[in-house]
Amino acid sequence: MKFAIAVFSAAHAPSSRRALLFAQAVLAGGHEIVRLFFYQDGVHSASGNIVAPQDEQDIAAQWQDFIGAHQLDGVVCIAAALRRGVLNEEEAQRYQKPAANLSNSWELSGLGQLHDAAQSADRLICFGGQ
Amino acid sequence: MAKSLLVISRQAPWSGLSARESLDIVLAGGAFDLPIGLLFMDDGVFQLAQSQAPSALQQKDLTANLKALEMFGVEDIYACGKSLAERGMFPGNLNLDIRHLPQEQDISELIDRYDHVITL
Questions:
Q1: Closest chain B residue to A110 measured between Cα atoms?
Q2: A26: CATH
Q3: A86 to chain B, minimum CA–CA distance in Å?
Q4: Whole-model pTM?
Q5: Do B120 and A129 touch (CB under 8 A)?
Q6: Fewer C-beta within 10 Å: chain B N or C terminus?
Q7: Residue-wise pLDDT tens for chain A (130 aa)?
Q8: What ipTM was estimated for this complex?
Q9: Starting at the edge strand that comes first in sequence, how are the strands of the sheet with A123-127 ordered?
Q10: Which domain holds residue A99?
Q11: Which structural domain range is residue B13 located in?
C-alpha cells in the first residue's frame, strides 16, 4: 500500500515520535511511503539546529537519518518554514538572514506537494493535528 | 479520478496559525482543481463570525481568505450545526453563505464520503 504521511507537530512532540515509528513500520511492513510532508510546527523537525539533551531521543536527527537512509521524499512546506525560521541556503540569502538551518535530506516546497502526495497515496496519515 | 480531501478546521482565528494554515491547504487544493471540502467544527466556526476585529490583536483578517474559497472553486463548505449553536451563532448570520450544516450525527457520514481527511 502507498502511504503519504503528514506531520503537523514539532520534533519534541509525542506525535512526531509516533509518526516516525509509524513511518518505520510502513517500510518494515513492505509498504511504500510516497512522501513525508511537514507542515505547521512539523517544519521544526527539519531544523539542523536542534540539540536534544543527551538522555533524550533526538527525533529530528532520527527523521533526518530515516529519510536519508531510505532515500525518501521529505518535503517541508516553504511558507510554514519561513514563518518559523527554517531556511535553506537560498532562502536565507533571499531574506538576508544570518544562517540556513534546513538539514540535509529535506526539501522546501509548496502545499501542492501535499495534495500531490495525497493523490498518489492510498492512505494519507496525519500526525499532530488538532 | 482525483481523490477527494476533507479539511476539518477546528481552531478559532485568534488561537494561532491553525485557522490560516488549514485554509491554505484548502485554497491550494482549489487552485489545483481537486475535489476538496472544508468543514468548520468546534472553535473553528468562530472563523465564520461576522464583524471580527482582528486588528485589536494585531492580527490579519482571515475573512478575505475565506471569500477567496469561491474564487478557487471550493464549493463544498460545511459548518457543524451543533458547534454553531453551542457558541450562540446562527447559520443566517455568518460571513460566508454556508448551505451545508450537518448535525453532529451526520459528521461521520460526511467524513466517510471523502478519500482523505486532514484535521487542524
A1: B28
A2: 3.40.1260.10
A3: 16
A4: 0.94
A5: yes
A6: N
A7: 999 999 999 999 999 999 999 999 999 999 999 999 999 999 999 999 999 999 999 999 999 999 999 999 999 999 999 999 999 999 999 999 999 999 888 999 999 999 999 999 999 999 997 7
A8: 0.93
A9: A106-109, A74-77, A32-38, A2-7, A123-127
A10: 2-127
A11: 5-119
